[in-house]
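Deliverable D4.2, example record:
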Amino acid sequence: MSAYLIANVEVSNPEQYKQYQEFSSIAMKTHNVKVLVRGGETIALEGTAPVRTVVMEFDTLEQAQAFHDSEEYRRARKAREGAAKMTMYVVQGL
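Output generated by the structure prediction step:
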């Protein structure tokens, strides 16, 4: 069953965040991640919309967890420290 990793991001240091984007792109390619949303315009229909949203599709919850825990993505997370606040979760699809 598909799983979707969703991240809501508030970037505080755009220059440093570029390094995170570079490393996270490498991690996504390494793990064959299907990126459905990466930034783009957001319009709040109810409540407050996040500043930046990322949605990635995986075949299973386990694959999403493996991506998050991978050495490649750990490198990206380290590069992001101090550059952005992120809420990230994975949800199982239908």
